[in-house]
Fold these 3 entries.
Entry 1:
Amino acid sequence: MDLFETIMFPFQWLVSIIMVGFHEGLSSIGMPPASGWTWTLSIIGLVLVIRAALIPVFVKQIKAQRGMQLLQPDLKKLQDKYKGKKDQLSRQAMAQEQMALYKTHGTNPFSACLPLLIQMPFFFALFTVLAGISPAQQAGEGIGAMSPEQVAQFDASTIFGAPLTATLLHNPEGNPTAVMVLTIVMILAMTATQFITQKQIMAKNMSEEAMASPFMRQQKMLLYILPIVFGVGGINFPIGVLIYWTTTNLWTMGQQFFVIRRMPTPGSPAAKALAERRAAKGLPPAPNPGGKKDSHPEAATAAAIAHAKGQRVQPHRKKRKKK
């Protein structure tokens, strides 16, 4: 057993235990044990369990993303301060001040990637479990918590004539047309849901200052690069893995929609839309859930409420120096 298999071993057991639990539960209520739809729902159940367990991590991710957006103006000032300075002392000083900014805002660039990093072992574990189904079936062995009988059932299961273990490039037993059509549809669904999720964040939940930052220029590049990477990689994914990843993308999209609508980033279009909705209902402005203040919270809120009510915002009187 190599290092990768050693690392994946406990995740394979956990993934297979959850799938077997859902499979037995669905079988007990009358679904055929060897049906591809029973195993498909078991994979979807696996997603629900993992994503529900990651909700606390998702909350931390949202706070980290919000903190990264709010510190962009300060980060730009810091970059301008050390612009053109290439000596070692200046780079060290900039790094120290940058870390201090992250600490002040309670965030760091890696926190936003935490849920994805935590999910990756489960993704690879499911991939290795499905890839090992056919060899295990031929050897009459089980995989993780799956018994030899369940392995044989999974190996023979299909949806729309396509085996759950088949890929676009490897289809030993299924209907070639069904496998090709279903894998292409699932790959498109996987990449589309990932793109839409990231696009709605950038379009609705970021302030103008955050959108103009160098950090966001990198995010815009990833917006188009990541779906292409997953789309190309999806050629080698079994249909069961494509179902898993598409389902988890749909979960993420729903979570993001809820967060953007109910707890938007201050200064973003979603925050202004929320202020307008609350003003239309006669409610006070929503509190800032992140505990951080945006650069012009009162002006943004007042403008949004006045726009909703069709009123003009009166300018604040500036204090004049006494002669």
Entry 2:
Amino acid sequence: MKVMTIGLDLAKNVFQVHGVDGRGVAVLRKQLKRDQVAPFFARLEPCLIGVEACGGAHFWAVKLTALGHSVKMMAPQFVKPYVKTNKNDSLDAEAICEAVTRPNMRFVPVKSAEQQSVLSLHTAREAFVHARTAQANQIRGLLIEFGLVIPIGIRHVYERVPSLIEDGEVELPGLFRRLIDRLLQHLKELDRQVQELEHEIGQWHRTSEPSKRLETIPGIGPITASALVASAGDPHNFKNARQFAAWIGLVPHQNSSGGKTQLLGISKRGDVYLRTLLIHGGRALVQLARTRPDRADTWLGRLVARRHHNVAAVAMANKNARLAWALLSSGKAYQPGYTETAS
């Protein structure tokens, strides 16, 4: 019997395969080691393969597509309702096989190797930024134990700590001075790593026309632009701009029933990193709208006047996400004050 649809439960070493025929009857249940996966699917006739969007999913999607199969990835939370009883690898593969055939299922676009490389730079940079902040806070916390208070901010650590550990009038043991100096050197190394990764991201950004177009949107810089382009991929995977903003998690969470619509805060679904970058950009624009008189009569200026600045920042992030989708899908450049005219 010909296998039409397969659910593949991915793992590090042991993969589970569940296949059904055209009538949906199970005809294949098999466990494969990692080195057996590619040869097995190479011998199989082309079919539809469903996988969960997890670690290694993009690699296997590209590899299996090259073997002639049609691969579709789904978010794990959309697959979970199809697990009928207890959870194990075999039942997970069966649930994936059933979920991939649903006509209303939402699928995750497959990322190219270049997209994954750029996003890897962003992931590493974010980790170094967190480590840099943690190191600066550790230095401040240790100095407080000796009665020395450093204001919040890495800039103050760089400015004040060297003079403190070199000042002979400050009563600090030599052992502690050497420790703080070591931690300060580590902080500088982390900062250097962040700057080098930002430089590499900037180099890629300057070679990408879509990323350079997004940079022209106020509130979006090279970091945000490159992350949007690498994460979104083909903008036509999204039906419209609102769906793109919803994918990032910048639209209201709905809890409606009985014909009564109730909109709550933003859903916070999707990519946390993109949402954070866009909201930080929105906060910068909100600060300008609050301090510059020439921006008081703009859309954002009027919003800031009547709503909390955090609400305005999220609204600005939502607007920028929609603008980003519009530029990516149309291939046009950003035009301030652009109004579409009916033809």
Entry 3:
Amino acid sequence: MASDMLAVMKTERAEGATVTRAPIPRIESPLDVLIKIKACSICGTDKHIYSWDEWSQGRIKTPMIFGHECGGVIAEVGSLVTRVKVGDHVSLETHIPCGHCPQCLTGKQHICHNLEIVGVDRDGIFAEYVVVPESVCWQNDKNLPHEIASIQEPFGNAMYTVAESNVGGRQVCIIGDGPIAAFAVGIARAFGAAPVIAVGKHDVRIDILKKMGADYTISIQREDVVQSVMDKTHGYGVDVVLEMTGQEVAIEWGLKIVKKGGTFTAFGIPAGVPRIDLSGGVVFKGANIIGINGRKMFDTWFQVANILNSGRVDPSPVITHKFPLKDFEAAMQATFTPTRDCGKVVLTVD
């Protein structure tokens, strides 16, 4: 094995990233594994790190390899590793729990009090190799393409959001047109939601929402969101709102269109502290609010595998662009177009 590898690093506390050579990481713990990355995909968190926004400035320590969504093959294992072996195809649960806090000890590892995130708090996967604990490896069927394996982590975000919201046989409105919202459309349909109403802004992405199975799509640039949803639900609103953007106006819409006794599930992360109508939108409606963070370990991963392996949801319409890792800059720029004419961008690694 060579001593160095291609990697994308945040080398300076400034906007941008550097495609460079870095040492191949070594296994230091007997419970660690070395993974040969085959495909990785760009997440919204990676865009924050690339742009060097306020959150990144307070969280990221440079130099660091970032990225956290991947599919790869086990190349080496530590001496105490027993669950995976060399040659296994894997993806990563990118939240590394401590294992001893109150949350971990009560089956809530996904919201560990001392959570560490791959590609945020430690070196990530925009590289040819990564070292992680065996405990966060998810074994994939070897027939699953690496590019699909790489999107299981965000697909799991969508799965957790939908699964917690009791959507079967219910009217559902999904607000947002990013990749996770698009995955949620397909999953909600597979779970029996009827109808699935999807709200988006960008035409290319609205087309993806249609391909993923939305019964109705609403463009915020051409329609009144609240009125359109009310017209489609006889003035009552929907049973379930999945808010995937974090935008204050989208949260406002969601609380207006959820019917009395309905469920508002919050996945999107606001940039600041949003003002909401707690009285009219929640209290007097008797509405339920659910907060979603990450994925359940590993309940959600089993659900993802079942859905993908059964073919009930085809995530491929969401993957619109592919680049080799060496062309990371072009790949990242594709995600920043004003018209957002892309879905998920996947990077391939030789």
